[in-house]
C-alpha cells in the first residue's frame, strides 16, 4: 500500500495541468458539505468543552473553530477561474485548511479520551473523528495526499489515546480503529485511481474533439482555413452587408510543372510560403483559405472596385518575389480572378464569378489580374461548349488536316508543306484553329488531337515525292511530355516516313520557362533525326538564348512583320535583324504570310531562304496536293521568267519539271 502511495505521488506530478485544475475545482465544488462538516465539528467540540471545561480542550476547541472559519472563508474566496490562474496556490490553501482542521479534530478526540472520564464524550468525539475521517477521505479523493493525510491525523490520535488508556476494550477498539484506517487508505487510493482514469479519459476525448474540429476547419499543409470554412466566412461577411466584399481567387502558374520537376516537398514549401505572403495581405480585415492544390482565396471588405483591383495587384506583386528553397530560388507567379459583391450577391455566385475571372486571367497569358464582367461568363460558356464538341470531333470525323506549301526561294520549288488543322463543325461551320487550339490546350485534349494530326500528316507526306517534307505544329503544352519522342518515332515507323522528312514547329512560349524536361524532350526529338523550327518568331520573347540553347534548324518569322513591311520601318528592321542573326547561327529563315510579289522580293533580298503564304497557295486538303505540285511546277517557270535578270536565282540550273526540296 505504501508503494501505491508513492506511485500516486509520481503520477500526480505528471498530471496534465488541465486535469489538476479539474481535480482542484472538484475539491472546491461542494461548499455545503464543507460548511456542514465544519459546523458539526464546532457544535460537538462546544458540547465536549461544555461538559469538560479543561483549558487544553478549550484551547484545542478554539483553534478548531478558527480553522473551520478560515476554511469557510477560503471557499468563499475561491472562484472557478482561480483554479486556472493559480492552481498551486489554491492547492496549498486547500491542503493546509483540510489538514489543519483534521488535526484539530484529532487533537480534541485525543484530549477528550485522556482528560475526560465521561464515556458519552468519548463516544461523541470518537464517532466524530472516525466519521469525519471517512467523509474527508471520500470528499477529497481527487487529492489522495490530502485525503490520506486527513484520515491519518484525524483518526490515528483516537487509537493512540486508546492505547495509552491500556484497558482491554480500549486496546481492542484501538486496533479496530487502526484496521479501519488501513482499509480507508486502500479505498481512497483505489477510488482516486478510478476518478483519475475517468478524468484523463474525458480530457483526452476533449483534446481529440478539439483536434478534429480544427482539422475540419483548416488546411493541414498551410494551417490556413479550408474551402468549407472560407465559404462560411464569406456567407457571414455577406450577411453583415456593411460595404462591398471582394473575392480574390488565385492559381499559381504552372505549379504542376514545378511540383513534377522539383518534387513534392519543394511544392509543399512553395505553397506554405505563398500562404504566409497572402496572410500578410489578407489579415486582419479579411480571410484567407486554400482551395486545394495551388489555389488560394482571399475574401475581404473593400471600398470599391478600384480598391479591390489595387489589392489584387498587391497580391500578384507579392508573388513575383522568388521562393527561396534549399536548392536555390524558384520563380513563381499567379493568375488572379476577382469578383465584387453587390446588394444581392450570394457566396456561391461571388465564388463562381471569381472563378470565371480566373479562367479569363489564365487565358490572357497568366500572371495577371482580371475583374469579373458578365461577358466573360458568356465567353466561358461558349468555350465550354467548344471543349465539349471538340472531344467528339475526332470520332465524328469533323477534323481535317490541310497543307500549305513552303517554297525554297532560291529554286522557287516547294520544299515542304505545313500541316494545318481544320474543324468542320456540324452546326457552326468552319472553326478557326486560333479559336479551338487554345481551348484544346486548356482542356488537355491537345495531346489526342496532336497525335491524330501527326498521324494524318505523316501518312499524307509518305505519298509525296521523296524530297518533300511535312511540318507539324506542336503545342507548348506537349513539350514537357516525356512520351512525345516515342509517339513521334512510332508514327514515323507506322507510316514509313523517314525522320528527315518530318519537321516540328514549336512556338517560343514553350521555351520561356527553361524547363529541363522540355530540353530533354527536344534533344530526344533531334536525336530521332527530325528537324525543329521556331514558329512565330518575333511575336513573343524572341530571346537569343533560346536560339543558342536548343538545336533549331529554322526560324519562321511571324507573318505580322511581312504584312507591315512596306509601311513600317520597324517591321523591316526586325526582318533584317532576324535574317542576319539566323545566317550567323546557320539557321534557315522562313518568312510566313507572303501575299504579294513585292513581299516575296523583299524577303528574298533580305536573305530569307524560304517563304510561305497565300501568294503561293492557301492551305489545301491532302487530296489537292499532287495537283498543286504539278501546277506549281508549271507556274515556277513563269515566275522564273518574270524574275529573269536576277542572276542569284538558281531556277535554270535546277531545270523545270523536277521537284527539288
Ligand atoms: P502557324 O503555325 O503560324 O500557321 C500559319 C498560319 O498562317 C495558318 O493559319 C495559315 O493559314 C496562315 N497563313 C499562311 N499564309 C498566310 C498568308 O499569306 N496570309 C494570311 N493572312 N495568313 C496566312 P491557321 O491555319 O489559321 O492556323 C493558325 C495557327 O493555329 C497556326 O499558326 C498554329 O499555331 C495553330 N495550328 C494550326 N494547326 C495546328 C495543329 O495541328 N496543332 C497545333 N498545336 N497548332 C495548330
Ligand atoms: Mg506553324
Ligand atoms: Mg507561324
Query: How would you classify the helix and strand content by structural class?
Result: alpha/beta
Individual helix count: 25
The average pLDDT is 86
Radius of gyration: 46 Å
Helix percent reads 55-70%
**So what's the overall shape?**
rod-shaped
The number of E-state strands comes to 17
Q: What's the story with the biggest beta sheet? A: 8 strands, mixed, barrel
Which strands sit side by side, in order, in the main sheet?
Answer: 8-9-11-12-13-14-15-16
Bound ligands, named by name, code or SMILES: ligand C2E, magnesium ion
| Cα end-to-end separation | 105 Å
Oligomer: single chain
Low-confidence regions: 652-661
Strand content: 5-15%
Keyword list:
single chain, 661 residues, alpha/beta, 5-stranded mixed β-sheet, 25 helices, 17 strands, 60% helix, rod-shaped, disordered C terminus, binds ligand C2E, binds magnesium ion
TL;DR of this structure?
With 661 residues, the protein is an alpha/beta fold. It contains 25 helices and 17 strands.
What can you tell me about this protein's structure?
With about 650 residues, this protein is of the alpha/beta class. The protein contains 25 helices and 17 strands. An eight-stranded mixed beta barrel has the order 8-9-11-12-13-14-15-16, surrounded by five helices. A five-stranded mixed β-sheet has the order 2-3-1-6-7, sandwiched between helices. Strands 4-5 form a two-stranded antiparallel sheet. A hairpin with a 2-residue loop joins strand 4 (about 325) and strand 5. Helix 11 crosses helix 12 (about 265-280). The longest helix has about 50 residues, at about 170-215. About 35% of the residues are buried. Residues about 650-660 have low confidence and may be disordered. It binds ligand C2E and magnesium ion (MG) (2 copies).
Amino acid at each position: 500500500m505504501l508503494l501505491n502511495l508513492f506511485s500516486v505521488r509520481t503520477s500526480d506530478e505528471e498530471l496534465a495541468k488541465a486535469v489538476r485544475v479539474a481535480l482542484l475545482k472538484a475539491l472546491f465544488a461542494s461548499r455545503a458539505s464543507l460548511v456542514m462538516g465544519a459546523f458539526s465539528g464546532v457544535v460537538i467540540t462546544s458540547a465536549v468543552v461544555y461538559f469538560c471545561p479543561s483549558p487544553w480542550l478549550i484551547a484545542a476547541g478554539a483553534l478548531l473553530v478558527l480553522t473551520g472559519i478560515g476554511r469557510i472563508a477560503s471557499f468563499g474566496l475561491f472562484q472557478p477561474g482561480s483554479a486556472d490562474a493559480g492552481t498551486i496556490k489554491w492547492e496549498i490553501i486547500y491542503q493546509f485548511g483540510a489538514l489543519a482542521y483534521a488535526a484539530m479534530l484529532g487533537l480534541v478526540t485525543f484530549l477528550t479520551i485522556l482528560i475526560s472520564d465521561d464515556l458519552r464524550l468519548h463516544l461523541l468525539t470518537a464517532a466524530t473523528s472516525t466519521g469525519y475521517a471517512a467523509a474527508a477521505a471520500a470528499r477529497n479523493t481527487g487529492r489522495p495526499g490530502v485525503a490520506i493525510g486527513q484520515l491519518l491525523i484525524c483518526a490515528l490520535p483516537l487509537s493512540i489515546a486508546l492505547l495509552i488508556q491500556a484497558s482491554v476494550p480500549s486496546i481492542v477498539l484501538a486496533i479496530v480503529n487502526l484496521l479501519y484506517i488501513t482499509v480507508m487508505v486502500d479505498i481512497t487510493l483505489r477510488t482516486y485511481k478510478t476518478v483519475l482514469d475517468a478524468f484523463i479519459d474525458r480530457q483526452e476525448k476533449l483534446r481529440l474533439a478539439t483536434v478534429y474540429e480544427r482539422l475540419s476547419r483548416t488546411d493541414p499543409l498551410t494551417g490556413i482555413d479550408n474551402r468549407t470554412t472560407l465559404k462560411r466566412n464569406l456567407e457571414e461577411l455577406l450577411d453583415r452587408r456593411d460595404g462591398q466584399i471582394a473575392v480574390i481567387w488565385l492559381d499559381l502558374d504552372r505549379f504542376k510543372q514545378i511540383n513534377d520537376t522539383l518534387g513534392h516537398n519543394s511544392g509543399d514549401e512553395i505553397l506554405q510560403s505563398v500562404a504566409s505572403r497572402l496572410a500578410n495581405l489578407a489579415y486582419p480585415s479579411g480571410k484567407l483559405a486554400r482551395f486545394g492544390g495551388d489555389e488560394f482565396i482571399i475574401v475581404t471588405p473593400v471600398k470599391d472596385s478600384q480598391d479591390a483591383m489595387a489589392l489584387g495587384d498587391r497580391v500578384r506583386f507579392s508573388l513575383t518575389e522568388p521562393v527561396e528553397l534549399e536548392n536555390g530560388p524558384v520563380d513563381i507567379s499567379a493568375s488572379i480572378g476577382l469578383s465584387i459583391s453587390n446588394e444581392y450577391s450570394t457566396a456561391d455566385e461571388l465564388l463562381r464569378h471569381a472563378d470565371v475571372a480566373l479562367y479569363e486571367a489564365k487565358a490572357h497569358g497568366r500572371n495577371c489580374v482580371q475583374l469579373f464582367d458578365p461577358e466573360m461568363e458568356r465567353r466561358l460558356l461558349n468555350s465550354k461548349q467548344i471543349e465539349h464538341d471538340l472531344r467528339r470531333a475526332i470520332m465524328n470525323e469533323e477534323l481535317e488536316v490541310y497543307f500549305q506549301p513552303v517554297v525554297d526561294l532560291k529554286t522557287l520549288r516547294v520544299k515542304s508543306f505545313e500541316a494545318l488543322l481544320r474543324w468542320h463543325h456540324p452546326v457552326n461551320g468552319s472553326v478557326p484553329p486560333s479559336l479551338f487550339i487554345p481551348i484544346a490546350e486548356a482542356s488537355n485534349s491537345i495531346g489526342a488531337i496532336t497525335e491524330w494530326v501527326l498521324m494524318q500528316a505523316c501518312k499524307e507526306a509518305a505519298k509525296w515525292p521523296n524530297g518533300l517534307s511535312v511540318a507539324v505544329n506542336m503545342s507548348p503544352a506537349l513539350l514537357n511530355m516525356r512520351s512525345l519522342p516515342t509517339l513521334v518515332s512510332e508514327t514515323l515507323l507506322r507510316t514509313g516516313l523517314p525522320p528527315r522528312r518530318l519537321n516540328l514547329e514549336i512556338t517560343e512560349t514553350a521555351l520561356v520557362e527553361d524547363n529541363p524536361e522540355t530540353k530533354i524532350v527536344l534533344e530526344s526529338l533531334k536525336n530521332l533525326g527530325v528537324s525543329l523550327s521556331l514558329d512565330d518568331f518575333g511575336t513573343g520573347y524572341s530571346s537569343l538564348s533560346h536560339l543558342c540553347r536548343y538545336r533549331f534548324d529554322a526560324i519562321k518569322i511571324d507573318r505580322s512583320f511581312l504584312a507591315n513591311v512596306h509601311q513600317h520601318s520597324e517591321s523591316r528592321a526586325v526582318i533584317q535583324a532576324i535574317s542576319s542573326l539566323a545566317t550567323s547561327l546557320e539557321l534557315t529563315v522562313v518568312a510566313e504570310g507572303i501575299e504579294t510579289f513585292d513581299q516575296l522580293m523583299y524577303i528574298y533580298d533580305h536573305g530569307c531562304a524560304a517563304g510561305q503564304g497565300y501568294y503561293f497557295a492557301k492551305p489545301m486538303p491532302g487530296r489537292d496536293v499532287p495537283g498543286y505540285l504539278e501546277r506549281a511546277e508549271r507556274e515556277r517557270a513563269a515566275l522564273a521568267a518574270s524574275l529573269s535578270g536576277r542572276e542569284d536565282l538558281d531556277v535554270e540550273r535546277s531545270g523545270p519539271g523536277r521537284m527539288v526540296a
